[in-house]
Design brief:
Elements lengths: L4 E6 L13 H18 L4 H6 L4 E11 L8 E11 L3 E10 L2 E13 L10 H14 L1
Antiparallel strand pairs: 1-3, 2-5, 3-4, 4-5
């Protein structure tokens, strides 16, 4: 994992509009997959947390900038870096890359919520894992 989590994907026909350009909302899906994979790689089991009634992450805020379109059959890599850890949320910077070119980038705040939708402190061991990851990125 190291400083930056890498998540590779290819653009398929279902990801594009009639012109073969990735539909803007699909970048959010790509980033969501990358964040989920980052958590899994850090040893965080979201499914077990939901089953145990501990809570769930939800996107509370996202700021995204589209720089250039991705197209059908492009090979992309989503780079995710943990920037800040709070008691009930985490700030993650993500970049969608095509080779050395930034296609889109976003700042995402993921809030930890109880199963009834209220903000809740993240499990302590998760915060510790995040702090270690953040420390690697500093």
């Amino acid at each position: 994992m190291g400083r930056t989590h890498h998540f590779a994907l290819r653009v398929y026909f279902e990801d594009t509009d009639v012109a073969g350009i990735v539909y803007y909302a699909n970048y959010l899906k790509f980033m969501e997959r990358a964040r989920s994979d980052m958590l899994r790689a850090a040893g965080i089991d979201q499914r077990a947390a939901i089953k145990a009634g501990e809570g769930v992450y939800a996107v509370a805020e996202v700021q995204i900038r589209y720089r250039t379109p991705a197209r059908l059959d492009d090979e992309l890599v989503i780079l995710s870096e943990l920037k800040e850890v709070r008691a009930a949320s985490a700030l993650i910077h993500q970049r969608v890359m095509r080779g050395p070119e930034i296609v889109a980038e976003a700042s995402v705040t993921a809030a930890f919520l109880s199963l009834d939708g209220r903000p809740k402190r993240q499990p302590r061991d998760w915060i510790e894992r995040f702090e270690r990851l953040k420390g690697e990125a500093d």
